[in-house]
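Forum > Structural Biology > Help requests

Title: Can anyone predict the 3D structure of ABC transporter ATP-binding protein?

Hi all, first post here. I have the sequence for ABC transporter ATP-binding protein but no way to get a structure on my laptop. I'd be grateful if someone could post the structure tokens.
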Amino acid sequence: MTALISASGLGVSIDGHVLLAPVSFDIDAGQVLAVTGSNGAGKTTLLRVLTGLSRPSEGTVTVAGNAPNERIPEFRGRLAALLGLPAFARNLTLREHMLLVAASWGQNFDVADERVDGLLHDFGIARLGARFPHELSSGQTQLFALALTLSRSFEVLLLDEPEQRLDSERLNMVSDLLRGLADNGTTIVMASHNQQLVDAVSDQVLSITEGVYGNRG
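Reply #1:
Sure, ran it for you. Structure tokens for ABC transporter ATP-binding protein below:
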């Protein structure tokens, strides 16, 4: 079976400064790769390369057999990413944000409406659907950002430290949701500092700091 995401000697440098030392890995559909390492090791840089926002300066990487390129609609349609909090519109409610994202990616209203209601419920923020983003606590904002990212259809999900601003109870909920997505065929790459999340969700771990990569037992 050909890996859905494959990297070989993938590295990024700018003006002689190494942002990501070369890494190699293969991820099959429905697997979760956790990327760990200290701040500045290159976790976010790796995610940016996978989204097509940055280009590698050495090595190769493919997603579904093609190099990441955000200018190609087919590529963008396969991949959803949360790399830091998105920009929110102050005059749109949470539910309106999510419906807008769902509709923008081609879902008809009935499908989008059902998907949004399901996500608001799954993330425990259904009662907040009529609020505006600036009215949320930090933990609620993180849950909303995750729900907003999942509002559209995708095959690959990229997440940069999804555990941010979450207490233990909310972290357990997000862990279960992410593992459920993977079990249903979604391929996930997430950068994380949280060992609890890594242990609960990942099939493989890429430790950039230690240069260690392998399957979890």
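Residues 168-183 form the longest helix (16 residues). The helical segments are 43-51, 73-78, 94-104, 109-122, 138-149, 168-183, 195-201.
Shout if anything looks off.
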